[in-house]
Write a structure and sequence with these properties.
alpha/beta, 4-stranded antiparallel sheet, 13 helices, 32% helix, elongated
Length: 422
């Protein structure tokens, strides 16, 4: 139903989507998973025809989204990240407007509106929100209105970008049930960065990172990317050879790694086959051998671990190589050089060095010039002054006040626009 071929999107020199290709069929819920800024929403907007791609092709039910936009878009119901709502309309007025834009008229239009408001719980036996202004609805109910407009005219393809944002836990469960129900006879694409959301409702997962697809498979097969093994971490107090001998003979154990610690402790990492749980067996064997287990942790390969591994930023890995400045944007290259120079200056101050050569590419900032030492002036001997008369004429006091120039405050520079102080 959907075919995406080598789609790219550039914003100037920035490449938001880098050659994405995939297909989607009816009767499946697809999860489009990725961190914030990975390019999910950009891809959704390209698929629905809301945004033109720089390169590539998109086909909806065989219709090219650019050559036959009307035919392609008629098969798609779309909820963008920000629902396209007219806040001064009531819910019913807005759905009528959207339905007419989709070609619905008369009795068919009102039947469709009644169907979608019931499916999204905008109208039930206890409450009816259809006559309320959208601006008076909570964020969760506005999200429901956005989902309702996507379901109008019963499109074959439904694309939802972050559909549960702003919903409370009960509403999230209801929307997830609705998405699973729609997946029986529709092609549903759900975009999200929430792992539990994808795991709960999706049959197929597409993981995108930095504008590229890094994994695409069924949910049950995706965890196999981490290998067909799970791990158990133990901290025990006992002899290394005895611990290794007991664990190696346990069925399902693939490998045993032991690292000795102080005070007779040992950290043990056991690799076991997937679907195997040997924790109970290990506990009783060590108990019989009088070897105390201080801690035991079972580590299973999950979608979360796969996601973190596939979307990890190499820059965050200290063992990863530093990117070349040729591969950076000019702003990033300058920032990198400034950071290097700052580190050099801090190290020089710590080590007591006077100067350290700068990294190339950033002009060296001149040091502050040293001020010449002020010449020493021999103070003149002070001549004792005659005591002032206690009774000073008022005129002399006034004269002295005029000679003394008071300091101006910042308020004295203020000139009022409409009268005020002189």
């Amino acid at each position: 139903m959907i075919e995406v071929r080598n789609v790219k999107k550039h914003y100037g020199d920035f490449e938001a989507v880098r050659g994405i290709s995939f297909t989607a069929d009816k009767g499946t819920v697809y999860g489009f998973l990725g961190p914030n800024g990975a390019g999910k929403s950009t891809t959704m907007n390209i698929i629905t025809g809301c945004l033109a791609a720089t390169e590539g092709e998109v086909f909806i039910n065989g219709c090219d989204i650019y050559e036959d936009p009307a035919g392609a878009k008629s098969a798609v119901g779309y909820l963008p990240e920000q629902p396209p709502l007219y806040l001064d309309m009531t819910v019913e007025e807005y759905l009528e407007f959207v339905g007419e834009a989709k070609g619905l008229r008369g009795e068919k239009l009102f039947r469709e509106i009644d169907r979608v408001v019931k499916r999204t719980a905008l109208k039930d036996g206890t409450a009816d929100f259809t006559d309320r202004l959208i601006k008076n609805l909570s964020k969760g109910y506005r999200q429901r209105v956005g989902i309702a407009q996507a379901l109008l005219a019963d499109p074959e393809i439904i694309i939802l970008d972050e559909p549960t944002v702003g919903l409370d836990p009960r509403q999230i469960i209801e929307i997830r049930d609705l998405i699973r129900e729609l997946g029986h006879d529709h092609c549903v694409i759900l975009s999200s960065h929430i792992l539990t959301e994808i795991s709960a409702v999706c049959d197929y997962v597409i993981i995108i990172s930095h504008g590229e697809i890094v994994a695409s498979d069924k949910l049950e097969n995706l965890t196999k990317l981490g290998g067909s093994r799970n791990y158990i971490d133990l901290t025990v107090r006992g002899d290394e050879s005895a611990v290794h001998r007991m664990l190696s003979s346990v069925p399902g154990v693939i490998s045993v790694e032991i690292e000795t610690k102080d005070l007779g402790l040992a950290h043990v990492r056991i690799a076991i086959e997937q679907g195997t749980d040997i924790r109970e067996t290990v506990f009783f064997r060590f108990a019989d051998a009088r070897i105390p287990i201080l801690s035991m942790n079972y580590e299973e390969i999950t979608l979360e671990k796969i996601f973190l591994a596939l979307t990890a930023d190499t820059a965050a890995d200290p063992s990863a190589e530093e990117p070349d400045e040729e591969d950076m944007s000019p702003e990033d290259a300058v920032a990198q050089r400034v950071l290097e120079n700052t580190k050099r200056r801090l190290e020089s101050l710590t080590n007591g060095e006077e100067s350290v050569p700068e990294a190339p590419g950033v002009p060296e900032m001149p040091d502050k010039p040293e001020m010449p030492a002020a010449p020493q002036v021999t103070p003149e001997p002070q001549v004792p002054q005659a005591p002032e008369d206690t009774e000073t004429p008022a005129a002399d006091k006034a004269g002295k006040k005029k000679e003394k120039s008071p300091k101006k405050s910042k308020d004295d520079d203020y000139t009022p626009l409409f009268g005020g102080r002189d």
